[in-house]
Amino acid sequence: MMLRAALAAAALAAGWPAAASAAGDLKSELKALAALDARVQSAGWRLVRSNAPFCGTVAPGIGLQLFDAAGFDDPPQVREALGVEGDIAVQAVAAEGPAARAGLTAHAALRSVAGQDVAALPHVEPGDYARLAGLHDRVDAALAEAGSVTFAVADGAPLSVSGEPACVTRFEMLSKGARAAADGKRVVIGRKLVEGLPDELLAAALAHELAHNLLGHRARLDASGRSWGKVKQTEREADRLMPWLLANAGYDPRAAVRFFEAWGPKHDLGILSTPDHDRWKTRARKVAAEIELVRAAQSRRGGAADWKRDFRPQG
Ligand SMILES: [Zn+2]
Questions:
Q1: How far is the CA of 209 from the centre of ligand 1 (A)?
Q2: How many Å lie between the centroid of ligand 1 and the Cα of residue 315?
Q3: Nearest residue to 172 (alpha-carbon basis) of 160, 161, 183
């Protein structure tokens, strides 16, 4: 699926349940959210890092998701549950990514991010994640300019983290829902979908959405109009790019087939489906056929699934 309207970063972790009032419950809930976010960041980072040689646009990345307590319904309660004084912290780091290797860990409180004193940030209301998005922009800008970015961790010395080349897409988990979408720059995925998928199938779901961004589908549909036929073509392309992206990231490309086998029977709307997506069995079959092309390309190119050269987008 592709997003038709601009996504608001505000959706990140919004809709906090008021019932989670006990500090212990809140703490374990925040921990659970961070663990799910870490799975998304880890799989996303593997995909964008390993496919960098083939992406049209590449920028330094570090595999980091930040956290803003002020976006929650009850920020003091959130700060207390995490044992932090300020609002800004690390939410998740990608396994084996630059941020993790530099020593950043989930819920580490931050005093400054890319030179920004976080205590001096403007106030935001619950549900407003604009300043969180702004901090991510600062991180990206510092990385683009200097190749590295500095964080002041509340209880330690400043940490400088060097970026590594990655395809340009941010990954974000929404606090609810079971859908995934791409808007050209970001991939968002609902918490329920993350919870329901083992790592390899989560990577497949993210690879599909990332493929929309890498193939410039949103811009293409903006220019051409969104007829069912045009949308269906972008969906088919995104499906077929999945095994290429997975193979480079060290996942079994057949995870793309297994994703449709696992997800399809539960989510395919059958006769109620709109004609802009094929039925899941068709999608699984087409992806399986594409895997043969991925294997052939890998054997020609010393193991690299060079989709920039070998992937045929049309059809
Ligand atoms: Zn799609």
A1: 6
A2: 15
A3: 183
Distance CA 301, CA 315 (A): 24
Question: Dihedral of CA 203/209/213/216: which sign?
Answer: positive
Measured in angstroms, how far is the CA atom of residue 284 from the centroid of ligand 1?
Answer: 14
Ligand 1 center to 56 CA (angstroms): 20
Which contacts (CB < 8 Å, 24+ apart) does range 3-7 have? 3/181, 3/182, 3/183, 3/188, 3/218, 4/226, 6/183, 7/181, 7/183, 7/186, 7/188
Q: Domains of the chain, with CATH numbers?
A: 9-167 (2.30.42.10), 197-310 (no CATH)
Contact yes or no for 112/171 (Cβ under 8 A): no
Going residue by residue through the chain, which has 315 residues, state the pLDDT in tens, using 9 for 90 and above.
444 333 333 334 444 444 445 677 999 999 999 999 999 999 999 999 999 999 999 999 999 999 999 999 999 999 999 999 999 999 999 999 999 999 999 999 999 999 999 999 999 999 999 999 999 999 999 999 999 999 999 878 899 999 999 999 999 999 889 899 999 999 999 999 999 999 999 999 999 999 999 999 999 999 999 998 999 999 999 999 999 999 999 999 999 999 999 988 877 655 555 666 778 899 999 999 999 999 999 999 999 999 999 999 875
Question: Could you tell me the distance, in angstroms and rounded to a whole number, from the CA of residue 179 to the centre of ligand 1?
Answer: 10
**Which residues sit opposite 64 in a β-bridge?**
93
How many C-beta neighbours within 10 Å does residue 199 have? 13
CA of 181 to the centre of ligand 1 (A): 7
